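Minutes, project check-in
Item: structure for the 72-residue chain
Input as provided by the requester:
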Amino acid sequence: MKMTNVVDMRNELLSVFTELREGTIELPIAQELNNTAGKILNTIKVELAKAALCGEKPVIGFLGDSKKCLTK
């Protein structure tokens, strides 16, 4: 599954959680998937922090339609 937005990521992580509970995914793999997801989200946090410091309104496709929430 290709993740194109944060909703896809959440759904994928929920699947990983389910697989972990069912014993159908190994713990090290689940840990790495969660670790990578955290790193992706941290890059978005950096992008948002930079935009806030510079007074910019970033368009971050991974977060969805920014027209609805990033207005001043």
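Outcome recorded: The mean pLDDT is 88.
No further action items on this chain.
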